[in-house]
Design a protein that fits this description.
Blueprint: H1 16-19, H2 31-38, H3 41-48, H4 59-75
Length: 77
């Protein structure tokens, strides 16, 4: 994989005014992380078919990010 991973930016962006207040300077999760967290069981099963068998211990987590990357790619169109 070349280049930086497309994260989609912040999932819940704040206004610039909020960034000047130290209490709100954290941008939170990326859109990629949000999509991965929202992947349902069928999305995960569908993505697992792209992994070589035997599946690694973290196959479910990998599948969540395969799904998230596909969701971000679909937004590029």
């Amino acid at each position: 994989m070349s280049g930086a991973t497309n994260t989609g930016g912040p999932a819940f962006p704040c206004t610039e005014a909020n960034y000047t207040d130290p209490r709100w300077s954290y941008e939170g999760m990326t859109l990629r992380d949000y999509f991965a967290a929202k992947a349902n069981e069928q999305d995960i099963v569908d993505c697992l078919c792209y992994l070589d068998k035997p599946w690694p211990d973290n196959a479910r987590q990998i599948a969540r990010y395969i799904h998230a990357d596909a969701m971000l790619k679909s937004r590029e169109a």
